[in-house]
Amino acid sequence: MKRLWIYFLAVGVCSLSLGAEGRTPKSAPPIPSVPRPAPDFLWSGVNGKVRRLRDLRGHPVVLIFAENPSEKLFLKQIKELNRRAKQLATQYTLFFVAFTRETGLVTRTDIPFVILPDPGSVADAYRVGDFGIAVISPDGNVDYATDRVITGQRVLDVIVNSYAAQVHARRL
Q1: CB 33, CB 110: distance < 8 Å
Q2: Of residues 139, 109, 125, the one with CA closest to residue 31
Q3: Considering only CA atoms, which of 77, 76, 132 is closest in space to residue 100?
Q4: For the sheet containing 94-99, what is the strand order?
Q5: pTM to 2 decimals?
Q6: Are the CB atoms for 6 and 168 separated by under 8 Å?
Q7: Phi, psi of 84 (to 5 degrees)
Q8: Phi, psi torsion values for 163, nearest 5 degrees
């Protein structure tokens, strides 16, 4: 919420400065909110309501791609996330998984995962092969994407040092 307020304040100041120069805000090029916007995906909530990734603005998202729930790399990634589960929970991180070949339940963790219903199209949108992980910031930017297993600490570091946090730090 604080980041959103700072963003609106910055846009307002820019609009005032453009108006003072005799130019209208319409003639100014649009300011991109994020450099790498995350491709949107859909899923059904518990109540059956269809939700979208953009509905989660304000929350970091971890999206994992795997062929199936018993894939070795997927299980290794779950183990890494389990090590930092409490810290990720304090950041209000939400977790999604797209099983591209065989669906099933996520076990060996207390982290609540949402299993995406159309994993193939999501994997295509993110350009992922057999395994991958993407960390999406609260503003919808893909802050990190890889086809390797990463540590839970690395996921936490990316979330804490999101694109928006880095932009804010540069302005200070």
Answers
A1: no
A2: 139
A3: 132
A4: 113-115, 94-99, 61-66, 132-136, 142-146
A5: 0.78
A6: yes
A7: -120, 20
A8: -55, -45
Q: What is the pLDDT along the chain (172 residues), one digit of tens a residue?
A: 444 343 333 434 344 333 444 444 444 444 446 789 999 999 998 899 999 999 999 999 999 999 999 999 999 999 999 999 999 999 999 999 999 999 999 999 999 999 999 999 999 999 999 999 999 999 999 999 999 999 999 999 999 998 888 877 777 6
Q: In sequence order, what E strands does 91-164 have? A: 94-99, 113-115, 132-136, 142-146
**Residue found under tokens 């950041």:** 91
What is the CATH number assigned to the segment(s) 35-171?
3.40.30.10
And the tokens for 148?
């390797």
